[in-house]
Amino acid sequence: MPGPNDKTRRWMRAAAIPAALAVSALIVWQASYSAFSGTTDSPGNQWSTGSVSLQNDTTGSYATTGTLMFNPGAVAPGDSGSWCVNVKNNGTTAGTAGNPIKFFAPLPANLSTNTLAQNLTLTVTESTTALTGGAAGSCTGFTALGTPTYNGLISALPATYTAATAPAGTGLLAAGATRGYKLTWTLPSSAPNTLQNQSLTGVDFAWSLQVGS
After folding, report:
1. Alpha carbons 164 and 109: distance in angstroms, whole number
2. CB 115 within 8 A of CB 198
3. Which of 91, 109, 123, 159 could form a disulfide with 51 if both were Cys (CB 3.0 to 4.6 A apart)?
4. Across-strand partners of 107?
5. Radius of gyration of the chain from Cα atoms?
6. pLDDT class of 33 with cuts at 50, 70, 90
7. Bond before 108 cis per omega within 30 degrees
């Protein structure tokens, strides 16, 4: 017949099992957190955006919105006129081969169908350096850089940045840098007699730099 000591031993054996499991778990936990380790980090990362801002000097000082360059009257076949303007990158984002400055004419909407625009030609050429420009449109110091940015009918000018597939000259304009452009219009001597008393108004010449579009 089992005595009290037998019961005590059975109880102790039963109690020893969970205790042993607990000790084993503790050993495993300590082992998993006692391995060698090393860490390196790069703290304080940050980002800031740049700015895109072009200005021209047609008013005599640099401004986002300038003034008209051409307003001739009584134009006859064979007449022409030129204006030189400086365009400045007043932002912090540069014009590059992938994000070039482009030249286009967003207004008027009927430019392509205007009779006079269909006969007037426009040549836009980038200068190797900035020019005197200003409110008088002086071309002092102009030296052509490569082929013209645009050379064709005013009616065929692209109306948007996207449509202007070719950059304005090199298209490269570093932040804070300035480029000179010479614009020359011509009414060919072969202009038809039907152009008498025609008009073309509200033509908006624009240079634009669009990054990420």
Report:
1. 16
2. yes
3. 91
4. 204
5. 38
6. low
7. yes
Place of tokens 């640099």: 62
State both tokens at 11: 């109880």
Query: Distance between CA atoms of 77 and 175, rounded to whole angstroms?
Result: 42
**Residue 184 φ then ψ, to 5°:** -130, 125
Structure confidence by residue, pLDDT tens digits, 177-210: 999 999 999 999 999 999 999 999 999 999 999 8
57 Cβ partners below 8 Å, 6+ apart?
A: 63, 66, 85, 86, 88, 133, 134, 135
Residue 167 identity (one-letter amino acid): P
Q: What is the pLDDT of residues 56-95, one digit of tens each?
A: 999 999 999 999 999 999 999 999 999 999 999 999 999 8
Got the DSSP string for 158-207? Answer: -SSTTT--S-STT--B-TT-EEEEEEEEE--TT--GGGTT------EEEE
- Pinpoint the alpha helices (H) of the chain: 4-32
Which residue bears the tokens 């005590």?
Answer: 8
φ and ψ at 189, to 5 degrees? -65, -15
Q: What is the pTM of this model?
A: 0.79
